[in-house]
Amino acid sequence: MLTMTTRKLPLILLLMMVIVSTVSFLPVQEARASVELAYDDGSWDTVAGGPNDFLTVRFSLPSGMSSAKLLTARIYRHDVDPSSTIVEIHVWGSTPGTDLITPFNYDLAVDNAFNDVDLSGYNVLVSGDFYIAIKYLTQYNPSIGLDTNAPIDLRSYYGYPAFLTSMTSGDLMIRAVIEVPPAPVGGVVMPTNTLAILAPFAALAGLVAVVSAVVVVKKRRD
Q1: Cα→Cα distances 63→66, 95, 153, 168, Å
Q2: Beta carbons of 118 and 72 less than 8 angstroms apart
Q3: What pTM was estimated for this model as a whole?
Q4: Which residues pair with 106 in a beta bridge?
Q5: Dihedral sign from CA coordinates of 184, 101, 175, 168
Q6: pLDDT tens-digit profile of 31-64?
Q7: Pick the residue with more confidence: 101 or 3?
Q8: Sheet containing 156-160: order of strands
Q9: What does the alpha-carbon distance between residue 183 and residue 33 come to, in Å, rounded to a whole number?
């Protein structure tokens, strides 16, 4: 009876060591949140365009946030039959014209909706104020949604980087999505699927324990 229990205990202890080791080497995953910065109300009232110049919106990070990764530029196109839907995308720092990424052409293909421009691959960290701008490659095409409802935030501009003019008639429907890293709070953040990973080990440990108990009871009866 005692002999059987003694033989099974090392196996259970070994299995528990394997489980602990597995947990120790699981990758740490940080929960990250995204925040959309917007100064329009989501509905276009009229449209804006330019003669081969720029339309841009100045963004400010939320209070208490020193920096953030820029994930997406969202640009609302409203133009039923434009002669062109291609624009040049710019991301500027606090000074207009100071590019944080290499400008590139983008097709605002979706009409009457926000077109999401993926910027996550550029790994751009913005701080303080920054600008998302489009440069027109075809005069006045495509048209960008403009929200004219009060309040007007006076963050929308047109013109050229050195000579930008504030748009007092409305807010351009250009938005920014940023990633907010979690503040360090200590400890280890476990991945959300940890229980799924450990479930087979836990089940196996329970099975070994049950088998050991059955064998011991059987020996006692014998």
Answers
A1: 8, 20, 17, 25
A2: yes
A3: 0.70
A4: 87
A5: positive
A6: 569 999 999 999 999 999 888 899 999 999 999 8
A7: 101
A8: 104-107, 86-92, 129-136, 54-60, 156-160, 163-166
A9: 11
DSSP state of 142: S
Reduced to 3 states (helix: H, G, I; strand: E, B; else coil), residue 12 is helix
**Crossing angle of helices 194-221/2-24, nearest 10°?**
180
Residues 6+ apart with CB under 8 A from 61: 37, 67, 68, 126, 127, 128, 178
d(CA 92, CA 101): 8
The span from the CA of 128 to the CA of 94, in Å, is 7
What's the token pair of residue 103? Answer: 């400008």
Q: Give φ, ψ of 153 to 5 degrees.
A: -85, -10
From CA 18, how far away is CA 87, in angstroms rounded?
56
d(CA 141, CA 83): 6
DSSP-derived 3-state class of residue 17: helix
Categorize the per-residue pLDDT at 16 as very low, low, confident or very high, splitting at 50, 70 and 90. Answer: low
Q: What is the largest CA-CA distance in the chain?
A: 97
Average of per-residue pLDDT across 162-179: 96
Tell me the pLDDT tens digit for each residue of 101-156.
Answer: 999 999 999 999 999 999 999 999 999 999 999 999 999 999 999 999 999 999 99
Top-confidence residue, 113 or 17: 113
Tokens of 42: 């989501």
